Amino acid sequence: MLVKLAWRNLWRNKLRTSIMLSAMVFGLMGVVSMMGFMTGMYGSMIDNAIAWQTSHIQVHNSRYLNNPDINSTIVDSHQLIASIEQLPQVRALSARFVTDGMVASARSARGVRINGIDLESEALVTPLAANIRQGEWLSLEGRNPVLVSNKTAERLRLRVGSKVVLTFTNASGDVTGAAFRVRGIFKTPTSSFDEGNVFVRRGDLMALAGIEGSHEIAILLDDEKAAFSLRDVLQAQTSNQNTVRDWQQVQPMLASIINQMGTSNAIMLGIFVLALSFGIVNIMLMSVFERTREFGVLMAVGMQKYNIFLLIMLETAWLGITGALLGIAGSVGLMRLLQHTGVSLGKLAEGLGAFGVDTTLYPQVSLTDYQMIFITVVAASILAALYPARQILKQRPVDAMAEKH
Amino acid sequence: MTIQTNQLCKTYNPDSDFPVHAVKSLDLAIEQGEFVAVMGPSGSGKTTLLNMLGGIDTPTSGEVRIDDCDICELKEKELIAFRRDHIGFIFQDYSLLPVLTALENVEFVMQLQGHSEKECRQRASALLKQVGLTDQQHKTPAKLSGGQQQRVAVARALAPRPRFVMADEPTANLDAQSTAELLDIMQQLNEKEGTTFIFSTHDPRVIKRARRVIVFEDGELKEDRRQ
Amino acid sequence: MLVKLAWRNLWRQKRRTVLTASALALALALSLFMRCLQEGSYANNIENAARFYTGLIQIQHPEFSDSQSIDDLLPADSQFIAPAKSHPNIKRILPRIESFALAAAGDKSKGVMVMGVIPEQENDYSGIAGKLSEGTFLSADDQQVLIGEGLARFLNLQVGDEIILYGQGYRGQTAAGLYPVKGILDFPMPQLDNQLVYMPLALAQTLYSTEQQVTAWVLHTRILSALPQTVAELSADYDGLANIRDWQDLSPEMAQQILMDKAGGIIMMYLLYGVVGFGLFATLLMMTLERQREFGVMLATGLLRKKLLALISIESLFIALLGVVLGLGISAPFLIWFYYNPIVLTGETAEMILEMGWDPVLPILLEPWLFVNQITIVLGLLLLCLIYPMWRVYQLDLVSALKGGGHAG
């Protein structure tokens, strides 16, 4: 009965209630958009990092992690690769021979990481093979082919077929190098990655280095979440001179981002809800004071004060619930639309490209987010109702009834 | 059921330079079934008296006993419950809940008492029939005339079967026709059900119908006559 | 008279006034704090990037921005730099050689960036000597180098060890040299800290065989806001001979990141004001509608409608001003405290920010325009919320107001 009365009371002043609900819808749609945007952006960053850079699990020689010496290759790598291939959760793996060096053209030079890859397996682990913008993927034919990024190509004035010299320190500690020809030009979503990496055939690089083996094994799984448990399994299966790391350990920043996201979302919601609460308190106070006489009458005919208190709380709860539902409905609609069309980042794409965010953003909002929003808004409304509702408890019926509004 | 006052007194601003003695040491007794009009000019204190009799206001001194229960001693919660069960109120401005229909308004106090939905509905419909508003039972107060609203108020006051009904200037905002109709209804209910009616009024039409008239002036009982 | 009346009217409904003003105050305080923090952070990062790396303006060979090649150089003589020197807004001029090399030590190698500078001048500009974590600073004729901490760790080098630099010099000549490490720098720009070799200009010119040429002239202005104009003027002076680039052009990624962060913050701010604005609108509207009878009486007794509108405006203005004063009052102590004690981030957050290439410090910028900006927004909001209520009062029908009155909605 009180519930029904509360609902009807809410609509006594249609204008006021509508304004309040509009505020909630406006605010919620805005907050959800921002949350979706951030989640989408960071999600993109993480997905790209996993796809292109970290994969799900990486294995290195433990010494290599402290001191990337070309001699610190993975211990018993063949055995390890065999056991990895046995695991059902593994989708693909790639063993790389890596060294830091320099790439130089007639025009200019750049410090880069030289990645010696196995052509077949690398194509399965990263999307590199499918993202060659000019020229083609590496093949077994030809002498010393290399893949460079379009950024590197720009800097060094390279085209497909251009000659470059790759220099680095070999296993004996001598600076060595050789001429390579650009076979293809690639572009990844992360421009900072592009700038710093070139790709050659393992065999070619090992021949120059004078040492065999792998410095890095990158593993791609079917399920992202399996990375953490699988890491331990693998570590147990291999020598303790090797270190197996999951993608969050490889790039701790990714883990930080995930943690941070929850916090910043909560803060945004909190601020919005706080501002909203002021509005709700104000509106409900107006509503309560307008009805002082009516409350006096209610007390006179026999309605207990705590019931009137409850009535006001229910009215505010209805306000919160209605606003939250409308706001969420609006947000869902907006998100559906944006997820369909995507948000093009246009000019800002370069800045974000440094982090690996795609140029078209698809906002993401999870069910948990919506739930959190709903609960927070309703809870805040109820809290906001306390102050106005308290006002009624202090009144004596006779005084209440004497009030001419 | 008897209402009795002993040296009932109400003073506003007792400590200031200009205290207002609204009711000065009143002794009064009202029996079950009476149809009483408390009459007097504005400011005579009759509203204050009625408020104290109904437990809405507390006296400065003296007591109000209803069936030997000193209602001034009751705690707020008990007092509210007492009013709910035993006293009906009719106000000058009808004071119906604007968001409820006539029927829902009448049911209201019965629902507070905890009666079943069916019971409430039945009695409310019956009462509305008695006051001649069956066709209007689903309308909200905004759609009813003053007279109609006051009739709903009467039905509401009677629905929880109170022992007595207090009406503060019930006809003040009504035209002659509505006043006559209203008084008819109230007299009927008084005679049929035996409910005690206590009015405060300065409407001569009401005073003519009352069986007992108490004249109040400057907070004092000037006359108490039966007619 | 109107002002006095307006002020008193405000306090008839004390609670409502206070609540509305408080909501405004909250929005203002939060927004102001956030913007000061943001702008402080940007200014700090721009400052760092400028002082330690790009400067505010660079004069470069027209092809250099694309090629980054050691072949695209500028003369290092005073005749060339004269137009810049004589420009009133240019405070500092620093010649530099910046190029790549392969650094090797022991059996490790890494691509590094070599910065050839005039040490005393650079130190004057950026205080780089203060960033030395080990060793001593360079002098102009040293045959030694300074390296970044990250690089030192990677190559396992300490003060006194030697580093080999190997690269491509001017017009195809080989650049090669062996240099002792004189000191290790904690370079404030993390992404450079891992690959920086700092050496005297003369030494760099020898390494790359450039003779009396430089890759860039780095400039700093007196007045930051006059930067675009200065760039335009210098471009005219050096038309064809050289490319004039400002810091945004040199670090487009940083410029865009700043832009994006700013955009995000501003959207959040408008959202906040929007929500509060609805509340303000509701309050003003209710206030107006409730007092229709009162307004009717005022108009009937001879108050000009124009003056009534003015009265309402003044009342609303007072509420807004109250909110502003309250908001400033709340935020001022925080702003001042954090101005003198900037927040230093630690732990995971700090790591993340360092990875992104930003300084993990949150300094506050206190400048008038930030405050004026916020106050303007509040006043603008107020104006927006007043439109409808004022229109209602303007349209107020005297008779129905006197009759009806007190009826909101």
UniProtKB/TrEMBL annotation, chain C:
GO terms for biological process, alphabetical: lipoprotein localization to outer membrane
Origin superkingdom: Bacteria
Record bears the keyword Membrane: yes
Transmembrane parts of this sequence: 267-287, 308-340, 369-391
Topological type in the membrane: Multi-pass membrane protein
Domain ABC3 transporter permease C-terminal: 266-396
Keyword NAD on entry: no
Residue ranges of every copy of the MacB-like periplasmic core domain listed in the record: 17-216
Subcellular location: Cell membrane
Annotated GO CC locations: plasma membrane protein complex
Coiled coil, from the record: none
Family annotation (InterPro entries): ABC3_permease_C (IPR003838), Lipoprotein-release_system (IPR051447), MacB_PCD (IPR025857)
Family per record: Belongs to the ABC-4 integral membrane protein family. LolC/E subfamily.
Protein name per its UniProtKB record: ABC transporter permease
Organism: Photobacterium chitinilyticum
